[in-house]
Amino acid sequence: MRQRLKVDPIACKGHGMCAELFPERIRLDDWGYPIIDQRGVDDALLQHARRAIAECPRNALRLAPIIEPGAHQREDPD
């Protein structure tokens, strides 16, 4: 399953560690808050993403599955 990085903007306090640890997908805005690249995190970068998540002092980062259009399962009518 493909995943992308997400940030909780309420929890984030703009420490900027994530951008230092994972510059391939995270850059900082003018106030030091992360701007997350919405591309999926491929296997080659997954270790770097997990490190940035683990080192976030506010636990504001996470990996979320990328839901492809048409991939939703239908509920059974029963």
The portion of residues assigned to helices is 10-25%
The oligomerization state is single chain
Strand order across the biggest sheet?
Answer: 1-4
Mean pLDDT: 91
Structural class call reads alpha+beta
Record field, number of beta strands: 4
What is the percentage of strand-forming residues?
A: 15-25%
> What is the CATH architecture term?
2-Layer Sandwich
Instruction: State the CATH class.
Output: Alpha Beta
Low-pLDDT stretches are none
* Overall tally of structural domains: 1
Between the first and last Cα atoms, what is the distance in angstroms?
28 Å
How would you sum up this structure, described in words?
The protein is of the alpha+beta class and 78 residues long. The chain has a single domain (3-65), classed as 2-Layer Sandwich (Alpha-Beta Plaits), CATH 3.30.70. The protein contains two helices and four strands; from the N terminus they run βαββαβ. It has helices at residues 17-21, 43-55; strands spanning 3-7, 26-28, 34-36, 61-65. The strands form two sheets. It has a two-stranded antiparallel sheet. A hairpin with a 5-residue loop joins strand 2 and strand 3. The longest helix has 13 residues, at 43-55.
